[in-house]
Specification:
207 residues, mainly alpha
């Protein structure tokens, strides 16, 4: 007959199996750090596109009314997003192999669906607002909808994603109060926070 310690070990094993089936645990903290670095590079490129030679704290509403500048900013944002997604995929694949779990699992599929809905809706909202001339809403909207996506998908991954999501939403709401300073808040949300949370996740889950 099993003693108490053996039953405890069995319960731990069962819990681990359940977590793996319900949660996507292959997110890499290092990919979050790199995503933050990409965003920092994108913010620098956006500064030289829309603000230079003024200070980044200069109110940028006037320059954002120029369609050419808006197009360049969209291209910069798309490049940052693409690089971040590719990096996340590569590092998640490596982590999945390390822990002998499938990358494309029911948990990862559910996570992708939960994240995709707010991101797609947010993307369409930003396109509509830009088309109607409300360019100043782009920065707060990206932060808010991205934060909603993280909170929505956090049930299927590590808890730190939820806290990151709430922080992004908060920054987006504050950014909406100061629409001419979107680049500052965008840099804080997508560069600094990703680097900080990526480092936390790396130290907690990847080492």
């Amino acid at each position: 007959m099993k003693d108490l310690s053996e039953y405890e070990k069995d319960l731990v094993s069962i819990r681990t199996i359940m977590d793996r089936s319900a949660k996507f645990i292959s997110l890499s903290g290092l990919s979050g750090i790199l995503a933050g670095i990409y965003a920092l590079g994108g913010a620098i490129a956006a500064y030289y596109t829309a603000y230079f030679p003024y200070s980044p704290f200069h109110n940028g509403r006037i320059s954002l009314n120029e369609p050419v500048i808006v197009t360049k900013l969209v291209l910069i944002g798309t490049a940052v997003l693409g690089a971040s997604l590719v990096t996340a995929l590569i590092f998640s694949q490596k982590k999945s192999r390390k822990h002998d779990v499938k990358l494309w699992s029911p948990a990862s599929q559910m996570l992708l669906f939960k994240v995709a809905v707010p991101l797609v809706v947010g993307g369409l909202f930003i396109v509509i607002m830009s088309y109607t001339g409300h360019f100043e809403l782009a920065a707060p909207a990206t932060l808010i909808f991205y934060g909603i996506a993280l909170v929505h998908g956090s049930a299927n991954t590590v808890d730190e994603i939820r806290y990151l999501g709430f922080t992004e939403i908060f920054l987006g709401l504050v950014c909406a109060l100061y629409p001419g300073y979107g680049l500052i808040f965008w840099t804080l949300g997508f560069a600094l926070l990703h680097i900080v949370y990526g480092a936390i996740m790396y130290n907690k889950y990847d080492r």
